[in-house]
Amino acid sequence: MNEKKQKNSNTTYDHVLKYTGIFGGVQVLKILVNVCRNKLASVILGPVGLGLNAINLSISELVNSFSNFGLSFSSVRNISELFEKGDNEATSRYVRVIRTWSFLAALLGALLCCTLPIWLPAAFSLISWVSFELFGVVPDNEIVTHVQQHGLDAVMLSLMVFSLPIEASECSILKGIRQLKCLSVIEVLAALATLVCTIPFYYMLGYRGIVLALILSTWSVALIHLYFSTKFYKWRISPFNKDVLREGIGLIRLGVPYMLSGIVGAISAFVVLGFLGSAGEIGLYKAGYGLMVTYAGMVFVAVEADYFPRLSAANADYQRSNVIINQQIDVCVLLMTPLLILLSLFMPRIIHLLYAHDFIAIAPMSVCSVYYMFFKAVTLPVAYLPLAKGRSMTYLSMEFIYDVVYAVFIYWGYRLGNEYLDFVFDDMPCGGLVGMGIGLSAAGLFDLLLICGTYSATYGFRFKARTLALITFEFICLSSTVPFCLIGGMKWFKYGFGILALCLSCYLAFRFLSKYSQFASRFRRKE
Q1: Containing domain of residue 34, as a range?
Q2: CA 303, CA 24: separation in Å to the nearest integer?
Q3: What's the pLDDT score for residue 31?
Q4: Is 0.85 surpassed by the pTM of this model?
Q5: For 342-361, how does the pLDDT look when each residue is reduced to its tens digit (9 = 90+)?
Q6: How many structural domains are present in the chain?
Q7: How far is residue 246's CA from residue 505's CA, in Å, rounded to a whole number?
Q8: Is 421 in a helix, a strand, or coil?
């Protein structure tokens, strides 16, 4: 019995590693392309240009969050269940329902974006009032000023917003029918298309080319998704068919909480940008945030693509769900920690590689925010539990609480950092940015305690002793590196402790994966 249990465990770890490896390898190629794009964009546009780009992205994400109906997430579970049953006719019909509603969502988003200069000032006034009541501060209105001064750009963003629900629905279809290798190819092609569609416009038009680049890049990504998904199911929609529309009501009902959580998240991000005020500060913050979340986050790509469908299939079995969650946490933590240690040790050099010299001030902020990604490696597999069980209101409640706390922590980190942290890096003052990095990590810890505590009481989730031991050991390895990366003049301690911690973390990962999977034997065969 024990041998059978051990064999099943090994198979599961091998499965997690297989798809994490597929997507992780693809992410390396994607990152190489993004390195070129970020470097060229930062040199051509500078912090102010990237800040304007971030403002336009935030506006489009806010509008999309109000109109996407949560289709991209709610559809995966149902498609996955139909696909597992082998009912191709029912799956094909359901795909048509998804595409029909995503097309309607795209039209609604484009319409909202066209009227942006009318309703955004009123919406931002409401956000300012709420933030004043909560935080005692009114966000800067530079975002609203940007929209009012560039009304045509805001209207043009409707073309970008139209493509977002279509891209998301095609991606969800491919996830539901388990075309993970196909998705990995799309990731690389999308990165290449974004590079080709953005840099020429930045170079020729400067700030004026930002919106055009965003429109072309998002449409190219959407078309790439359509090209691959239509190989499995031809693109058909029935926007005037009552039966198709009625069948999608349940899909919308399931997705609305996810949509509401997206709205709260988008508003929270808006408030944070409002605190920063200037486009230059926004550009620096987004660069620092993206450095950790985008590059370190490649470990999480397989979580949504492969892990969520597996967890959904086991949602009725509490014991099996716990096993799946703990195994996913093990792999995420073991892969994430060495990557975070490497990023911390060589952060200034990485920034010089990825961005222009003007962005070097984000180095301390990025180091301070590594704990955010570490905590996320533990939290993310657990956070999918209510969605896998169809308890979307629970998920919405957790997201709402986190988004509010995230905005509070980021704001207070920025404010206290500017007031009390006289932090200078490479002759550039960056106390506020460092405070934001600390606030981001504090928000990650809060989310970890909130999610795990709530789902332990609600769904009976439990950490295995082995998983807790792994988390503790890897946290110690990371913590023995971060402080020395922030203190100047301690290079011997920084690299001495950092390299030792990196070796220990890699050794633990290798030993663990060798014991509980076929990782080592496959590695030796390749040698």
Answers
A1: 22-277
A2: 11
A3: 67
A4: no
A5: 888 888 888 887 787 778 88
A6: 1
A7: 52
A8: coil
